[in-house]
Amino acid sequence: MMSNYDSVGVIGGGSWGTTLAHLSGINNNKTLLWMRDEEGIEEINNKNRNSKYTKEYAISENIKATDSLEEVAENCEIIIVAIPSHSFRRITYKLGNYVKGDQILLSASKGLEQKTRSRMTSILLEETCCKKIGVIAGPNLFEEILKGHPSATVVASHFNEVIVKTIKAFASQSFRVYGNNDVLGSELGGSIKNIVAIAAGIIDGLDFGNNSKSLLVTRGISEMCRIGSKLGTNNSTFTGLTGVGDTMVTCACNLSRNYRVGYHLAKGKSLNYICENIVSVAEGINTCKVIHEFALEVGVELPIIRGVYEIVHENKDIMEVITSLMQRKSLWE
Ligand SMILES: NC(=O)c1ccc[n+]([C@@H]2O[C@H](COP(=O)([O-])OP(=O)(O)OC[C@H]3O[C@@H](n4cnc5c(N)ncnc54)[C@H](O)[C@@H]3O)[C@@H](O)[C@H]2O)c1
Ligand SMILES: O=P(O)(O)OC[C@H](O)CO
User: Fold this and answer.
1) Per-residue pLDDT for 136 more than 70?
2) Is 47 among the catalytic positions?
3) Do 60 and 120 fall within a single domain?
4) What is the pTM of this model?
5) Alpha carbon of 328 to ligand 2 centroid (Å)
6) Which pLDDT score is estimated for 259?
7) How many structural domains comprise the chain?
8) Is residue 128 in contact with ligand 2, taking CB distance under 6 Å?
9) In terms of domains, do 76 and 90 share one?
10) ipTM score for this prediction
11) CATH number, domain at 321?
């Protein structure tokens, strides 16, 4: 039977949603980008720019911006939701009014819902009738992708059809798309690395240097594996792009907003000031609360994540937290 779906859909016209729409557009897919902001819609449709979120970069002419979720649902077989986790359910619920069970829904967001601790793919399943669900995650700083620098991502799904069709829609000469079936591991890696990135920003804000960064990244990934095991992941996923890969990139530089949160905290700025003036969204702030509280409940020791939680949510002195991390009792004592 012929499909009516002739476009790829992206929900959320922020920096990541716009970049994903661009990747689809340059692959000659008709691409619908849903967003709520009228000025943004006009700018994309008339000038091929989304200057509020993707700066001066020109984006594909194959993108049509729209404020109609119904239009996206009627025309797109693959729909990617790139809305921050705090609003992900609200928008997915609305989308759920229009999609049919044969469509592919992907999350491109890297966070956990604070109230329910849900992953974004669980929300896609709960709020829509779609079963063909997946997640896109990996070391994906949007600016480098829009510059066309070689990058890669991962699409994870329990359905091979989802992987194959997503690769076809998004892979290009400068953007490689890998597939795997570990949805849980890919989603957790993409979320937990944001917590480690806040700590990395703190280390750089304090000018601690490379040994400290290496210590943090290695032990941060170890904590990712420990909580992942408790949740039933295949830890080998964490050694790939969605674990080590994404942790490296977000811990490396100030293109990451989570890193910038840590950096400015170390420079003495308040969390409120940072959230209002420096970063749009930094998923690690909420994710560290979710993971820390869960770890306490299930009795898993996550010292770095606890430290980030204490700094971010309990306003503890950064040097006191670092000292207590360094001086805590060794398993060998
Ligand atoms: N920026 C990146 O390089 C990047 C890369 C990979 C993953 N991500 C993830 O993608 C997700 C989205 O981040 P982003 O970078 O695009 O953020 P952003 O701040 O650039 O954009 C967020 C977008 O979501 C929209 N939005 C927020 N709340 C909304 C609501 N209630 N209703 C409708 N629209 C709403 C905003 O209007 C905006 O268009 C995050 O989970 C992030 O971790 C980002
Ligand atoms: O800017 P951040 O810290 O949200 O990171 C963006 C991406 O997740 C990097 O892969």
Assistant:
1) yes
2) no
3) yes
4) 0.97
5) 30
6) 98
7) 2
8) no
9) yes
10) 0.99
11) 1.10.1040.10
